Amino acid sequence: MSYCRQEGKDQIVFLSKEDYDKPPIGPVPDENEDDDEPGLIMENGDINWNCPCLGGMATGPCGNEFREAFSCFHYSQDEQKGSDCYEQFKGMQECMQKFPSLYDNESGADMDAIAEEEAKARSQTTVDDGEKSGDNSVNEADDKSDAETKS
């Protein structure tokens, strides 16, 4: 027995084997039919700057800076993709800071603050690793309390 049900925004269709095997009624879209919009990356690997997914970033007041940074990242050959694009992204960020009403930074964090947080996290990881390997006093105290509880 085939049936449909709605769950929130989704429509779930259950088909019986018999219904599944029937030929479709109405037009079936051609899989090879090209969409009007090619998407962000075109078949030749170029960036589609007219893609609505960019939300106008490529054409706004910082459009040139955005295109430079995004192109650098897209075509980056570095082991860590985009690691060679710091200057381009910094230029884009500086431009965006000149237009706060257009490019609202909800988190309030800038690249310098993010870099500082990453450095702190790396140094904290190093400290934590040293504590785990060198300081067994916490584990020894836990072992003693476990032994006292058992006796």
From TrEMBL:
One of its GO terms (biological process) is protein import into mitochondrial intermembrane space. One of its GO terms (molecular function) is protein-disulfide reductase activity. GO terms for cellular component: mitochondrial intermembrane space. Residues 15-41, 106-151 are annotated as: Disordered. It is found in: Mitochondrion. Residues 62-98 form the CHCH domain. Residues 107-116 have a biased composition (Acidic residues). Its main location: mitochondrion. Residues 141-151 have a biased composition (Basic and acidic residues). Signal peptide: none annotated. It holds the Pfam family CHCH. Keywords: Disulfide bond, Mitochondrion, Oxidoreductase, Protein transport, Redox-active center, Translocation, Transport. PANTHER family: COILED-COIL-HELIX-COILED-COIL-HELIX DOMAIN CONTAINING 4 (PTHR21622). This is CHCH domain-containing protein. It comes from Capitella teleta (Polychaete worm). The lineage of its organism: Eukaryota, Metazoa, Spiralia, Lophotrochozoa, Annelida.
